[in-house]
């Protein structure tokens, strides 16, 4: 079977897509490709000028808006300003291995960026969603020992890479519980997961874990890193499908449907995490 590429994207004329963190890396490639096949693409970015510069000269219908996913005030005002159908939401924005810091809401910055903010954003945008939510996770979710009762790192000593792994497992569990709720309410909206393998973006640029540039030849470039996101956003997949590269260890290659870690399919943990996040943020209690 031919390997799936961005050339296989369907026509998305008339469809509206939001990609968070789309000013660089995988999100920018995904935004560019979705616009190329006709979607109206909103880039939710924390630096609007940088976002505008990133898409300047690219063909397509782009709308660059301010969105800091780690800041719940920004997330709320972004969602409040949204009007009309949103066909596809891509929760792409992320940071990795960043030092301990708290947001204006008192949340752990890394967890808020990668999980808690996207949780709130998705819940607030659900009334507008028509097709699906794609959450961009990582193979590193497999290493997580997520503490559901302390997912926001209040009781334990903060460890940057552990917090990254946990935030990416939290997204996997979020997708599972979101899909359960959507199905239970009879919604046609799907929640799906994508991971890029390891892609040579700026994600790890500041990190002690940055072996990415030295071993680039073993890894996905950002173009290939965006393929699982594009596949998850546009192909006919079952709810909670997990899409990643088809190469060895899911590190490199073309998109294929795979299985997340077993812990990512634990329904009671997913429900417990949802409830804990809803209690912390005040969003999501009755959603879907
Ligand atoms: N690259 C990999 O190997 C890899 C592997 C597994 C998973 N992922 C995931 O893939 C996604 C995209 O990462 P990438 O590799 O493309 O890295 P990247 O080039 O660093 O892109 C991350 C994007 O997220 C944005 N962002 C960060 N914090 C934000 C916030 N608070 N609000 C809004 N946007 C924010 C960044 O915006 P600024 O430009 O403002 O910083 C940047 O555009 C992330 O979720 C990452 O965890 C990547």
Automatic annotation (TrEMBL):
Keyword Thylakoid: no
Homology family: Belongs to the short-chain dehydrogenases/reductases (SDR) family.
Xref: Pfam families: adh_short (PF00106)
Coiled-coil ranges per UniProt: none
Record's protein name: NAD(P)-dependent dehydrogenase, short-chain alcohol dehydrogenase family
Domain of life: Bacteria
Molecular function as annotated in GO: oxidoreductase activity
Keyword terms: Oxidoreductase
InterPro entries named in the record: NAD(P)-bd_dom_sf, SDR_fam
